[in-house]
Design brief:
about 110 residues, mainly alpha, about 80% helix, elongated, (apollo) hypothetical protein
Length: about 110
């Protein structure tokens, strides 16, 4: 029987987001590597260390689709981690019997 536990939902949502991002990462990496191979097989291009470096730098630059996927992946991981920290903090605060101490800790920024 499945429980209606917010932690279970949060965990499932986290894994779903990570799985989707990893699939996007795999596809984008394959696309970038294929573009590199296609560029190398182009008879008009001369392969030198500098031209190879420039092409790799372009394919994996901050503006590239590959980097966007990586940024999204980090955003999901960091966001879910923050959710878990907030959840854990709430559980710990509920265990503090003195209301004054609980409020002081609750008002303290994470």
């Amino acid at each position: 029987m499945l429980r209606d536990d917010p932690r279970s939902y949060l965990l499932e949502r986290s894994f779903a987001g990570l799985t989707n991002s990893l699939l996007c990462h795999k596809e984008e990496l394959q696309r970038a590597l294929q573009a590199l191979v296609d560029w190398d097989s182009d008879s008009q291009q001369t392969l030198t260390p500098n031209t190879l470096f420039d092409n790799i730098e372009t394919l994996f630059s901050k503006e590239s689709p590959y980097s966007k996927v990586i940024e999204d992946l980090f955003q999901i991981v960091c966001g879910r981690r923050a959710d878990l920290v907030t959840l854990r903090r709430g559980l710990l605060l509920r265990q503090i019997p003195e209301e004054y101490h609980r409020e002081v800790l609750q008002n303290n920024p994470s």
